[in-house]
UniProtKB/TrEMBL annotation:
<feature type="binding site">
    <location>
        <position position="70"/>
    </location>
    <ligand>
        <name>ATP</name>
    </ligand>
</feature>
<dbReference type="GO" id="GO:0000226">
    <property type="term" value="P:microtubule cytoskeleton organization"/>
</dbReference>
<keyword id="KW-0723">Serine/threonine-protein kinase</keyword>
<feature type="domain" description="Protein kinase">
    <location>
        <begin position="41"/>
        <end position="227"/>
    </location>
</feature>
<protein>
    <recommendedName>
        <fullName>non-specific serine/threonine protein kinase</fullName>
        <ecNumber>2.7.11.1</ecNumber>
    </recommendedName>
</protein>
<dbReference type="GO" id="GO:0050321">
    <property type="term" value="F:tau-protein kinase activity"/>
</dbReference>
<keyword id="KW-0418">Kinase</keyword>
<dbReference type="InterPro" id="IPR000719">
    <property type="entry name" value="Prot_kinase_dom"/>
</dbReference>
<keyword id="KW-0067">ATP-binding</keyword>
<dbReference type="GO" id="GO:0005737">
    <property type="term" value="C:cytoplasm"/>
</dbReference>
<keyword id="KW-0547">Nucleotide-binding</keyword>
<dbReference type="Pfam" id="PF00069">
    <property type="entry name" value="Pkinase"/>
</dbReference>
<dbReference type="InterPro" id="IPR017441">
    <property type="entry name" value="Protein_kinase_ATP_BS"/>
</dbReference>
<comment type="similarity">
    <text>Belongs to the protein kinase superfamily.</text>
</comment>
<dbReference type="GO" id="GO:0035556">
    <property type="term" value="P:intracellular signal transduction"/>
</dbReference>
<dbReference type="InterPro" id="IPR011009">
    <property type="entry name" value="Kinase-like_dom_sf"/>
</dbReference>
<keyword id="KW-0808">Transferase</keyword>
Length: 227
């Protein structure tokens, strides 16, 4: 089974005091202060919302390009959730690289927030795209589904199950190519391993997850793709 070592990069110009926490990850000292804006990112409109986060369109002055910044509010999460899911999301995105995955450019942590600076998918998520156009042609649906299969297979080949595959987490770039995103529930696993954490989205979750039974992560990803 693969194990990932999460690394949180502090993006400020001045040094930051980091303290080690359980599991080998790092966090800023309680006296640290951080602003993503002061580090050369101009925030624009909100392009996505979650229970514990929002995604902002932003402009990076260093690279002269638009990016998406996911701002996760740590004070809305239980400490054990922060340790288990936030560290895992950053680590997985750092260690996996595939054209069908959204790319993580930088990550920064303040006392209250975690900032993930990511590739911008100009055409939004697959659900909005379908609603906007009414339906997908058979050819387009086949092309998109083939790309989803390819990136999910890559994750599984690297012992990672996603656990929240849904249309809202399939983004489309300017050429309408798939970019899988939101690895907050993802975890390392192997074929035959049984997981117990209930997570994912109701409309896409496998029956064993909804029933509270142990489940195999790879198989539940396959179920979700058929959702």
């Amino acid at each position: 089974m693969a194990t990932w070592t999460p690394v949180i990069f502090d993006l400020r110009d001045e040094p930051v005091v980091l303290k080690k926490k359980k599991g080998g990850a790092w966090k800023p000292d309680a006296n640290s202060r951080y602003s993503i804006v002061k580090h050369g990112y101009k925030l624009d409109k909100t392009i996505g919302n979650g229970l514990f986060s929002k995604i902002k369109l932003a402009y990076c002055e260093k690279t002269n390009k638009k990016v998406a910044i996911k701002i996760i509010y740590k004070n809305k999460l239980r400490p054990e959730v922060q340790d288990e899911y936030l560290d895992a999301e950053v680590a997985i995105m750092q260690n996996l690289e595939h054209p069908g995955m959204i790319e993580l450019y930088e990550a920064a942590e303040s006392v209250n927030n975690l900032y993930l600076v990511m590739e911008l998918a100009e055409n939004g998520d697959l659900l909005d795209y379908i609603l906007k156009h009414g339906y997908l042609s058979e050819e387009e649906a086949r092309r998109i589904f083939r790309q989803i299969l390819d990136v999910v297979k890559y994750c599984h080949d690297n012992y990672i199950c996603h656990r929240d595959i849904k249309c809202e987490n399939v983004l489309l770039d300017e050429e309408l190519n798939v970019k899988l995103t939101d690895f907050g529930f993802s975890c390392p696993t192997s074929e035959g391993d049984l997981l117990t954490q209930r997570c994912g989205s109701y409309a896409y979750a496998a029956p064993e997850i909804l029933d509270g039974d142990p489940y195999e992560g790879f198989k539940t990803d396959i179920w979700s793709m058929d959702g």
